[in-house]
Amino acid sequence: MAENDEPDGVRPGCLVAFALLMLGVIGVLLLGAFLARGDGDIQLGWLTDYEPGAMVYFSSDHVFAVRPADGPVVAFSDIDPHREDDGSRCTVTFRPDLAGPDGRGRFFDACSDSMYDITGRGLAGDGLDLSRVPIQADGDRLRIRREDAP
Q1: Would you say the pTM of this structure is higher than 0.85?
Q2: Beta partners for 64?
Q3: Residue-range domain boundaries for the chain
Q4: Of 1, 78, 94, 146, which is the most buried if we count CB atoms within 10 A?
């Protein structure tokens, strides 16, 4: 390039460097997505994540994980037990505003107006409790196998 010549734009080395950078970014994203997918199980986190009385809702997996004050972490399906067999998809929600004598909220099903305590026990007297979902513990790590999920 002569002394008075202006730069003529992007150099080929810059394009190669940019292409390699973009391939690296795409590779990292694909690897992250692959590793995050894991084995398809629902990861509930660590036992230490659940203080006594804690409740966590995994909405995309239709599961509540609860640690009652006096027991281990348990999981419940959010599907209304009154309608599990009829194909309708009525779901149970957790309502902290419906606290009982224990001061904890209640699970509530708007389709059947049923309530359940924090342990999943039905409070309507109809004999139906929330459906439990088995939890697998790998040390302190908690998960639900995909085939056990609702």
Answers
A1: no
A2: 57, 76
A3: 42-148
A4: 78
